[in-house]
Amino acid sequence: MEETRTGKPHQILWKERKQGNVTGVTDVVSFDESAILLETDLGMLTLKGKELHISRLSLETGEVDVDGKIDSMVYSGNGPAAKGSLLKRIFQ
Length: 92
Description:
By secondary structure, the protein is mostly beta strands. The chain has a single domain (about 10-75), classed as Sandwich (Immunoglobulin-like). It is built from one helix and six strands; from the N terminus they run E-E-E-E-E-E-H. Residues about 1-5 have low confidence and may be disordered.
């Protein structure tokens, strides 16, 4: 059975590993100069690099602009991060 999404469209656009835009973002979980962790409709997205900065954030439109040198982009999970305690998620 195919999963249907009701969130915003998800897209990544990166220019010369220096500047980028991510859409479909539902939350910024954490960020520092070496890593940014974003929650998207398609799972958690980890951006790793050097001198990373969030230059624009709009959770209303689901857009994040990032500056800095990107070294990797990695998805984890196959959907939004699960909410609640581990026991609650196990026994649902």
